[in-house]
């Protein structure tokens, strides 16, 4: 009897220590995966949302996410070194300058880190996309077309004579996705009968609201002939700059149709204002796919050696203040706020 109790105790203790040993080992295996998520403009709601969705992936898969804001080339390079020093195995990046492409690729290689890009695709010395780096971006030209079509439909609905309407085209030509977006918007407007000469280029020095505001102000000052205005840009922030500049000159909701791209807080806050503003609509794109899916793809690559697709282009949906909740729901973004 005594002997049986003794044996049972030994067995129980062995089993217990085996589980105690097994648990930390399994957890450690998960914890060992560390992924960086570097963004060019951490203060922009779009990038905050990307990070938020990347965190969701990190929680679900059990990896560590390291979020780094890198608004300059120098910061990008030190961020990559920093990730290597922390023993990360890979990173997802939206670079502050796509021309840093070859340098970023070389740095990642030297530090033995896997990399994929999001939003802004790296280019080589000749300005061609670096196709060897997996990338997820938006289908820029088509989304731009959705913007232009949305503006044209609203001009027609309001019964404006197109010859009296000026279009502020907030441009940022050094970024290919920005060029494609605003070109798509301008092409769609012209296809709908909008006079090409009424599209006023307003180059912004940086892709934020303040710089778009300054650029739009110049366009407005130089073109006092128009009775109404419309505006488009690469993102919501750019259109907001144009809308604020127009307001300053008396062009309010009745005389301004601004359509952005994004659908994060910059746009949502505008729609929440009690009275409509000139910010009429936005094409909502998916920070869920760009944050959660990219970091999951990186995780699978590190864990199982499965490389992400070389190119994924995501789509968007036009939303106004009237149907924004419905569109966010359709895009799987409703529960995110
Ligand atoms: C660029 C823009 C951002 C956002 C993303 C979406 O990076 O600067 O504002 O529109 O593209 O891919």
From TrEMBL:
This is L-arabinose-binding periplasmic protein. InterPro entries: AraF, Bact_Solute-Bind_Prot2, Peripla_BP/Lac1_sug-bd_dom, Peripla_BP_I, TAT_signal. One of its GO terms (cellular component) is outer membrane-bounded periplasmic space. The record marks 94 as: The binding site for the sugar molecule has not yet been established, but C-87 may be involved. Its main location: periplasm. GO terms for molecular function: carbohydrate binding. Residues 1-28 form the signal peptide. The keyword Transport applies. It comes from the Bacteria. The keyword Cytoplasm does not apply. One of its GO terms (biological process) is L-arabinose transmembrane transport. Residues 34-310 form the Periplasmic binding protein/LacI sugar binding domain. It is found in: Periplasm. Keywords: Periplasm, Signal, Sugar transport, Transport. Belongs to the bacterial solute-binding protein 2 family.
